[in-house]
Amino acid sequence: MIDKTVYSSDIIFCCIVISTWKDPIPGWIDNANGPTKVPLGASLGMVRSSYVDRKRVADIVPVDMVVNVTIAAAWETSYRR
After folding, report:
1. Shortest CA distance to 64 belongs to which of 32, 30, 34, 23?
2. Where are the domains of the chain?
3. Which pTM does this prediction carry?
């Protein structure tokens, strides 16, 4: 027997996820691991300079934007179905 049910799906791709932008509290983080260390260290005055390649771009996205897009994509997928 072949199941002919069609399943809908969305793919959400985020490169680097950091602390929140607005929700639930601006700048909220639950740890200081990974890419969050650099902005945290800079805001506390611990990181004053670093070596960077100005030709490169860091795709940094706040976690609340990722969650909002995920919820919106799930709603859109279920609505289209």
Report:
1. 23
2. 16-80
3. 0.69
